Amino acid sequence: MKNKNKEKRIEKHSNGLLRFLKILFLVIAILCLVLAALFTTIEIGVTVFNIILGALMIMLSNKYKRELSRRKEMTPTRIKHKQTYEEPILEAQRETLSTVPESREKEPNIPETKTERHKIAGTSFKQNDIESLGEENECYSWTKKELVELHMDEENIYRLNFPDGPVEIIPEPENKYAKSAMKVLVNGVHIGYIKKGSCTHVKKLIDENRIIGIYADISGGKYKRVYVDYDDIEDKEIYDIERDKTDYFASIYITIKER
Questions:
Q1: What is the tens place of the pLDDT at every residue in 130-175?
Q2: What is the C-alpha separation between 13 and 64, in angstroms, rounded?
Q3: For residue 100, what is the enclosing H or E element?
Q4: pTM
């Protein structure tokens, strides 16, 4: 029963604490073995004691090392916004590129592709519009303890989640600031513009029909972040939480056919 309680206590430790304890016990073990070597010819009792203590420290260090390895194996790989899209259609009257997510079967002679990231400009003027796209993030309501147990400490947990498509890129020649301007819409909502220096490049990709798919990555707004510390005197973990907010920001990822 005692061993089970110890294992449960170890499972509650954060990854940072486990790494610290692993190194700490390993250093103590090395010191014990060094002392044992120094006292070999002086005091046999001290030598034996240091050898036994060093072995125990190595066992403890290995225990924390195994727990870190176990967590690494159990942590799922996160795949960020990976979707397959249908060939984009450019409407002549609007010169609009629209991409709609839709799975498709693999076809022979599929061309090589690459993905470009384009940070969206002008989002600071579209904060309310971007927020209207958001949906409540269930993780935001979780307690500090729940977030730590799921290894979600030390990361921003935003209040809202955002869709990644469909995305439209629409030329805006009537724009008074730049005739080459291209606005970006997600689910029909205008979230900002392609950066000025990239407009000519993106327009060329559209004209050459090289774009295979586009998805958006939107984040920001209210968030909370859990920090974990360990009280050696009380022998327990201490949770602290930070709450703050940032502006909403966005990027789009354009998958294109290589030449």
A1: 999 999 999 999 988 888 888 888 899 999 999 888 999 999 999 9
A2: 10
A3: none
A4: 0.56
User: Does residue 196 share a domain with residue 104?
Assistant: yes
Confidence (pLDDT) at 77:
39
| pLDDT for position 228 | 81
Beta strands in 28-176 (DSSP E): 89-91, 96-99, 113-121, 135-136, 157-158, 160-161, 167-171
Which residue shows structure tokens 């916004």? 81
* Same domain (yes/no): 54, 158: no
Output 87 or 42, whichever has higher pLDDT.
42
Q: How many domains, the chain?
A: 2
Task: Confirm if 81 and 217 have CB atoms less than 8 A apart.
Answer: yes
Supply the angle between the helices 44-74 and 15-38 in degrees, to the nearest 10. Answer: 160
Instruction: For residue 75, count CB atoms less than 10 angstroms from its CB and return exposed for 0-12, middle for 13-18, buried for 19 or more.
Output: exposed
Q: How many residues does the chain have?
A: 259
Buried b (16+ CB within 10 A) or exposed e, 172-191: beeeeeeebbbbbbbeeebb
pLDDT tens digits for 194-230? 999 999 999 999 999 999 999 999 999 999 999 888 7
Claim to verify: residue 130 and residue 250 sit in the same structural domain: yes
Q: Are 227 and 153 in contact (CB under 8 A)?
A: yes
